[in-house]
Amino acid sequence: MQPEQIKVSINETESVTALLYAADKKLRAGITLILGHGAGAGQLSPFMVLFATELAKRGLDVITFNFGYMEQGRSAPDQKPKLEACYQAVIDMAAGNKKLKGNRLAIGGKSMGGRIASQVAAISKSDIAALVFLGYPLHPPGKPDQLRDKHLKDVKAPMLFIQGSRDAFGTPDELRPIIEKLKRTDILYEINGGDHSLKVPKTGGLTQHQVYEGIWEKLTSWLAKG
């Protein structure tokens, strides 16, 4: 089934395109998951389409969207306030969508998309049940002193960090003490050999699809428990 295209108004002059991947009716979990894309590729990237499609097959209503700069064909991401405003507009759209009425709301995304989701969750008054990070960009590559974690203490919902052991933006070992310091019920799911896009070496013993399947199962079961 093809996803439903939805126009999301950010303000009086700007809008972006979102896609709703409807959950498999037989497995519908009553959960809406919004996933923001990474800085370099939009919602139609193979990674985003694959994850949204497979998670919908497993019972989640999944929404992806383009941030404004990507919608307009620009390569450089917008400044923080515009990125956050865009994400919040998608949250508001999901909350008012009749097809998703009664669903619990989870948000997150790949790399930058997940980081912006966490920044929105830290300040938003929306009812957010959980956050999911597909490679959290804890710091720029090679700059471990420039941590992007100060706002995480203000996120009230539980968080699931899915992180590759070779992630140049922050390894599980770097994330672990930060999560422990929060003293919450957050979960770190490590992908052995995974990079920032959760890709593993061919010599790792598992195929890339098997690795992804493990992620999809972990993500859906974790959200269902919430």
C-alpha end-to-end distance: 28 Å
Number of strands: 8
- How much beta, percentage-wise? 15-25%
- Secondary structure category: alpha/beta
Instruction: Give the helix level as a range of percent.
Output: 25-40%
| Tally of helical runs | 6
Average pLDDT across residues? Answer: 96
Q: What string gives the helices and strands in order?
A: EEEHEHHEHEEHEH
Q: Could you explain how this protein is built, in words?
A:
- By secondary structure, the chain is α/β, with parallel strands linked by helices.
- 33% of the residues lie in helices and 21% in strands.
- The chain has helices at residues 46-57, 68-71, 80-96, 112-123, 172-182, 208-225; strands at residues 4-9, 15-21, 31-36, 61-65, 104-110, 130-134, 159-164, 187-191.
- An 8-stranded mixed sheet has the order 1-2-4-3-5-6-7-8, sandwiched between helices.
- Strand 7 (159-164), helix 5 and strand 8 (187-191) form a beta-alpha-beta unit.
- Helix 3 (80-96) packs across helix 4 (112-123).
- The longest helix is centred in the last third of the chain and has 18 residues, at 208-225.
- The radius of gyration is 16 Å and the shape is globular.
- The two termini are 28 Å apart.
